[in-house]
Structures are given as structure tokens and as C-alpha cells.
Amino acid sequence: MRISIYRFNPELDVGPHMQDYDVDPDSGDKKLLDLLVRLKTIDDSLSFRRSCREGVCGSDAMNINGRNGLACLTALSTLKEPVLLRPLPGFPVIRDLIVDMTQFFAHYHAIRPYLINDEQPPERERLQSPEQRARLNGLYECILCACCSAFCPSYWWNPDKFIGPAGLLQAYRFISDSRDTASAERLAYLDDVYRLYRCRTIMNCTEVCPKGLSPSHAIERIRLALLRESS
Amino acid sequence: MRIFLGQRAWLLQRLTALLILLFVVLGAAGLLAGATPSYVQWHAFASSSLGAVLIVLFFGALCLHAWIGIRDIVLDYVHAPGVRLPLLALIGIILCAVLLRVALTMAAHFLPGA
Ligand code: SF4
Ligand code: SF4
Ligand code: FES
Questions:
Q1: Is the CB of A30 under 6 A from ligand 3?
Q2: Would you tell me how many other CB atoms lie within 10 Å of the CB of residue A128?
Q3: Average pLDDT, whole number, for chain A?
Q4: pTM of this prediction?
Q5: Could you tell me the distance, in angstroms and rounded to a whole number, from the CA of residue A172 to the centre of ligand 1?
Q6: Distance A223 CA to ligand 2 centre (A)
């Protein structure tokens, strides 16, 4: 199998280049990550992030044949050759397939990704009805892999000011939580020409999310919530 | 200034789009129904107060819609403040001038001596 990988080592290289590898997958190699791990035994200078190898940690997001995805969830049998692997587009490259996620997580922290409730807590726990709990479905599953934000043209143009689909999906996760009491402040924070309204409903985010989530739908719900708030 | 930021702009963009769509659909329906107004008829329409109000309303919606759309494109692609601000100012002036021209032309019918 032929794989062409983006290589860049800032300590040695003047600029990035693509390096070709020919490897034969073992019978046990099912996913792209298996093959990358095998490649690493051949060329230990190749750098990429991975941890859980089962689509839970979100660390091995990369651009695979032009589409962002998780190497550990991408079946080798679905890939057209040569397989082109590049780092997440729009993110600063640290080395090879490893990108700098600082800004991405700064947006995540800015939406205050935790429950805010200053009321006296009940003796045991803040209860939710099954319907209230169901509202979090499709939101809480996000693994913050950044496949969506790194596939969003609006995020490419304004990565410093636009929160991006991942952060906005997380923002909506807390806005729709019945136990959170800060929805109004959260919405007021998002009512900004950059933070929320750079989104043009291009829907690349929903198209590419490896967990099957829909950030663009969450963004639509935030806009509707803002509309309700102001009327 | 808030009317041009965040949610208000988004809302205005949609409302003006609806208004423009309404005008376009009505106009197209009129043409399809075989109404091809002559110059005299157009002139009479524009000279009536209803016609003048509709025309100013249409151009108002058009300019506002154009402003929000073009401003969004500039915010996306033009990042240097030294270019962005003059560009936005230029676009704003052009759109205001268009609107002013339309409003003055319409108002001229109703001024004494016109
Ligand atoms: S929404 Fe999907 S693509 Fe975006 S960070 Fe979460 S899991 Fe990844
Ligand atoms: S829907 Fe919005 S957030 Fe998603 S890719 Fe498009 S512009 Fe980006
Ligand atoms: S290695 Fe954890 S998501 Fe792929």
C-alpha cells in the first residue's frame, strides 16, 4: 500500500515535503492507525498523536485523502491509493501530523465548558427528567478532535475570533442543560459578529464529524435561542 | 451601533432578504401575467405616493442587505485594518449615496414646483 505523508521537522527542514512509503498491511491491520503504528517501526522519525485507538480520545485527527478524520476509525479498505496524509488544515504544524491545538482549546475554555449553578445544591443531586437528559444527546458525545473546526472555511479565515463548530457545539451543550442557570450570559457572550455569526451554514462541520454529530444544527439552535431571548 | 453587530445583523439580513424576495416574486408574477407597463404607466406608479414608498422601501432593503453581506465578506477576507476600514467606509458611502439618490428622485415628485 502506498502512503504519502506530510513531513516537517522545524529543527531540520526549511519547509514541509511529502514523503512516500510503501508498506504491506498485516492481516491484523484494519484501520489507518494500525498502518501508521507499523510505519513508525520502520521510520521512527514519523510523528503523530494517538492514544485510545478506538475513537474516544480525539487525538489522531488528520486530513486523510483531503477529508478530516480519525486514523483509528478509518478502515484501510475504504482508502484510495496513494493515501495522502496531512495535518489538520488551518492549524499551525508542530511536526509532521502533529498540530498546535492551543487556540482551539482557548475557544473551548472561553465558552465555559462546565455547569454553572450558584443555587443551593440539593442533598443528593440535581435531578433531570428523561426528556431534559435527552436534550444533551448529540452534544455530550463530542471528543474535541477538531475535525470539524479544521474543516470549516469560516474557522480558517478567523481562527482567532470565531469560536468554531466544536466550541459552539459545546456551548450549546451547556445552554441546553436544564441544571445550568447561566444560559442568558452564555447567549450574551455568543451574540457577536465574530464568535458566533462568522458561521455561514456551510455545514462542512456536520459532514465531517467522525462521531456523527451536527455542530451546524447546534449553531442553528443557538441562533434560535438568541432570537427567543431578544423577543 | 448594535444593530449592525451579531444577531441584529443576522436578523436584518433575513428580513431584508424576505422583503426583496417578495418584490421580485410580485414583479415576476406581474410580468408573467402579461403586464408589461409602458413608460407612462411606470412614471405614474413612481409618482404615486404608494409607488414612491414601495420603491424607497425596496432600495432600502437592497442596500441594507448588500451592506451586511459585503461587510461579512470583508470581515472574512480582509484582515489588515489599514485596508479594511477604508474599504468598509467606501462601501458604506456608495450604498448610502445610492439610497440617497433614490430617495431624492422619489421625493422630487412631491416637492412643490416639480
Ligand atoms: S463535533 Fe465532532 S468533529 Fe467536532 S470536535 Fe466534536 S467530535 Fe470532533
Ligand atoms: S456550518 Fe458554520 S461552523 Fe459548520 S463548517 Fe459551516 S461555517 Fe463552519
Ligand atoms: S486514537 Fe483516540 S480517537 Fe483515534
A1: no
A2: 14
A3: 96
A4: 0.90
A5: 13
A6: 13
